[in-house]
């Protein structure tokens, strides 16, 4: 665990990889040239610059010499980043998570602001265990119970981010269909709605609902997550994932700026006042058993 107020290991690795890439470019060297000078495989440097692996202090010192970095204060800063970035979050789940999703988790655990839009399901950070299991069971047929439990364990571990009154600010816009669809049945969905209401009433989590009446909107292209950081040298990042599981991560200012504008547009159209009360009312109607299309159709017969 980091000391209170200390940068997370993930953020320190993100900062270090950014600084090392900038230093290499400033030195006029390609990744292949650096690998040859260091007597490394090219893949080692590529993985360091991608933030997939850390770098030891013993490896970093000669690398900084290769980049002609001689300022002692700069060297100590980079060495401290290397020391602090060795233990990345969620490395114990490398057996089930792809490297792309581990990068996502590094951003998630380090960002000062997270903005998420989802038109399909309750975002993973907000899911109850029963809801998460129902979602995963629907598209992971044939998965063993043991592996399913591992995925659920990882998902719930992420929710430590929600604990306490201090920490990152989280903004969620979810489609009305997400709170209407009875994932896992009435009982599971009612508990999920009550959990969302509890979170929406807290100080750090904003949950807004995009109603059907809005019609076509920018979020129809799919779910996305935006990460913003307090450290000036850390660029904002955008993460996209499609139903096939393919993912895309970018810190291009043009892309992050475009998605930020889309998120603000979705917020403008969303229901944002007394959302906790609204969610509890929806949960209550589920308990009455008359809040779905099947019940409405039965009334017309």
UniProtKB/TrEMBL annotation:
Gene3D superfamilies: lambda repressor-like DNA-binding domains (1.10.260.40). InterPro entries: Cro/C1-type_HTH, DUF5753, Lambda_DNA-bd_dom_sf. Pfam families: DUF5753, HTH_31. It comes from the Bacteria. Residues 20-73 form the HTH cro/C1-type domain. This is Helix-turn-helix transcriptional regulator.
């Amino acid at each position: 665990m980091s000391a209170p107020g200390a940068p997370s290991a993930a953020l320190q690795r993100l900062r270090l990889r950014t600084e090392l890439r900038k230093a290499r470019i400033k030195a006029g060297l390609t990744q292949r040239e650096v690998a040859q000078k260091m007597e490394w495989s090219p893949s080692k440097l590529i993985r360091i610059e991608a933030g997939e692996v850390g770098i030891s202090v013993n490896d970093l010192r000669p690398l900084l010499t290769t980049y002609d970095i001689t300022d002692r204060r700069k060297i100590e800063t980079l060495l401290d980043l290397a020391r602090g970035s060795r233990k990345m979050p969620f490395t114990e789940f490398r057996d089930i998570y792809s490297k792309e999703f581990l990068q996502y988790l590094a951003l998630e655990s380090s960002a000062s602001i997270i903005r998420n839009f989802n038109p399909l399901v309750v975002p993973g950070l907000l899911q109850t265990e029963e809801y998460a299991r129902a979602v995963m069971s629907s598209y992971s047929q044939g998965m063993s119970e043991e592996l399913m439990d591992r995925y659920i364990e990882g998902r719930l571990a992420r929710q430590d981010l929600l604990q306490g009154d201090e920490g990152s600010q989280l903004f969620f816009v979810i489609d009305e269909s997400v709170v209407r669809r009875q994932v896992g049945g009435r009982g599971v969905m009612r508990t999920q709605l009550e959990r969302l209401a509890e979170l929406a009433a807290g100080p750090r989590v904003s949950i807004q609902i995009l109603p059907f009446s809005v019609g076509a909107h920018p979020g129809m292209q799919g779910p996305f997550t935006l990460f913003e950081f307090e450290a000036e040298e850390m660029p904002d990042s955008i993460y996209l994932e499609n139903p096939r599981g393919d993912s895309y991560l970018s810190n291009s200012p043009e892309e992050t700026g475009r998605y930020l504008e889309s998120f603000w547009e979705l917020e403008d159209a969303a229901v944002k006042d007394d959302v906790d009360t609204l969610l509890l009312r929806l949960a209550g109607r589920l308990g009455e058993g008359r809040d779905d299309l099947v019940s409405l159709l039965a009334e017309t017969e």
